């Protein structure tokens, strides 16, 4: 677990980084396809027209070394990360672009961000959730996103719906 003093120092840096990333994704990303818009509605995204997806070779870490190290140790972003949602922006690694469950998971985070009132409040909520959970590796927001994505994909398989 990260110490409170360090958490308090890094949280504003994380929020600033997230805002810059969202701006970049919204500017350079692509809109959702009709099938992805349908998936966004399934996880309760309210403004799917604003969502943009950026396909990259690797998920970027913050330039600030202490913040990047904290993100790795918290397993928020690691070298193994395949996707991340930041506000209405989603970054997906190119080798995972066709993974519907991964995209659904990220869309669930977009819906959580909308519910929380926006990026700044969501970043605070998400980081606190991760900080206070056991082993700093999961939390209720991650559990919700994983559960929704798995449930939707399992239902599609059971009824043999197209992805």
Descriptive notes:
The longest helix is centred in the first third of the chain and has 25 residues. The chain has a 4-stranded mixed sheet, sandwiched between helices. The protein is of the alpha+beta class. The mean pLDDT is 91. It contains 6 helices and 4 strands; from the N terminus they run αβαβαββααα. 31% of the residues are buried. It is 58% helix and 10% strand. It has one domain. Helix 4 packs across helix 5.
Mean pLDDT: 91
Low-confidence stretches: none
Which sheet architecture does the biggest sheet show? 4 strands, mixed
- Helix content percent band: 55-70%
Judged by helices, strands and strand pairing, the structural class is alpha+beta
Q: Strands of the biggest beta sheet: in what spatial order?
A: 1-2-4-3
* H-E string: HEHEHEEHHH
Estimate the global geometry from the Cα principal axes.
globular
Number of helices: 6
- Estimate the strand proportion: 5-15%
Q: Return the domain count.
A: 1
Rg, rounded, reads 15 Å
